Known about the structure:
Elements: E1 2-7, E2 10-17, E3 23-24, E4 27-28, E5 31-33, E6 41-46, H1 51-66, H2 72-90
Parallel strand pairs: 2-6
Antiparallel strand pairs: 1-2, 3-4, 5-6
Helix pairs in contact: 1-2
Amino acid sequence: xxxxxxxxxxxxxxxxxxxxxxxxxxxxxxxxxxxxxxxxxxxxxxxxxxxxxxxxxxxxxxxxxxxxxxxxxxxxxxxxxxxxxxxxxxxxx
Length: 93
């Protein structure tokens, strides 16, 4: 299934598939984002992810889509902390 969306005026697609063959510095990749030259840009998220981890990876890859130049450490921390906040907010009454 492909979800088409826009982020900051950019056409993009979100797709879920097994990413087991993709590695980054020896570690399993949980998500990928096309570089700015691709049109439309595509975000791939490992279909085996669920819950808060899936949310975190979607946020992480959307940040790459919105700001390719952003520091990886910033993106990772922001995505993790926003996913935590969304999880807390989900259970709030």
